[in-house]
Each structure stands twice: as structure tokens, then as C-alpha cells.
Amino acid sequence: MTPLEMIVQTTQAIAANPSDAKAYQQRALTLCQMQQYEEAEKDLDVLIDTLHTEDAELYQLRGSLRMNRGDKKGALDDMRKALDLNPQLLEQLNGEFKSTEKGHC
């Protein structure tokens, strides 16, 4: 399945069930891979803030996207939450904030 087909499929799933966390997550990851970072962050906001998904990977990804658009406080908050959920991420986060170009997906 192409990324565009995945976007269409997940968007249809979300339209049918606005609480479908898996569809939001898949769409966010696909958007991120397509370098559509702002749209990906919006889906992550829904997952985290509205659907209350407690997943360290989602917080880490949103933190990376926030850092790369200059929201250091938001990025730090997300990375702290990611570490609270999964302390083993500390090893993976070494150097995470050094990039200032684009998000990491």
C-alpha cells in the first residue's frame, strides 16, 4: 500500500470512528514519513490530548516534532512523559535534541 493510499484508508477509518486510536497513529506515522510534520503533529495531539493514549513512542515522536519547530518547552514536556512511561528510552534519546532541521520519523 502506498503512503497516499494509507492516508486515504486511515482518514476513512477516522471518519467512521473518531475514537479509532490505531487509525490516528498509523496516519500520524505515515504523514511523518511523508514529511508532513504539522499534520502528523495534529494527529498526535488527538491521540495524546483527546484520546488519552499513553504510549511513550507517541510522546517521543511528538517531542521530536515540537523540538524541530522550536517548541522546546513542549518538546521537553513530551520527552519527560515518554521517559516516565518507558525509562529505557533514555539510551535512545541521547542526542535527540541536536537536530534542528526536520522531524524524525
Tell me what the structure shows.
- This protein has helices at 3-16, 21-33, 37-50, 56-68, 72-85, 89-92.
- It is mainly α and 105 residues long.
- The chain has six helices and no strands.
- Helix 1 (3-16) runs antiparallel to helix 2 (21-33) and helix 4 (56-68) packs antiparallel against helix 5.
- The protein has a single domain (3-98), classed as Tetratricopeptide repeat domain (Serine Threonine Protein Phosphatase 5, Tetratricopeptide repeat, Alpha Horseshoe), CATH 1.25.40.
Structural class: mainly alpha
In CATH, what is the homologous superfamily? Tetratricopeptide repeat domain
| Number of domains as seen in the coordinates | 1
Question: What general form does the structure show?
Answer: globular
Low-confidence stretches: none
In the CATH scheme, what's the topology name? Serine Threonine Protein Phosphatase 5, Tetratricopeptide repeat
End-to-end C-alpha gap: 18 Å
Q: From the coordinates shown, what is the CATH architecture?
A: Alpha Horseshoe
Cα-atom radius of gyration: 14 Å
- The helix content, as a percent range, equals 55-70%
Number of helices: 6
Task: Provide the residue-averaged pLDDT.
Answer: 91
Number of strands: 0
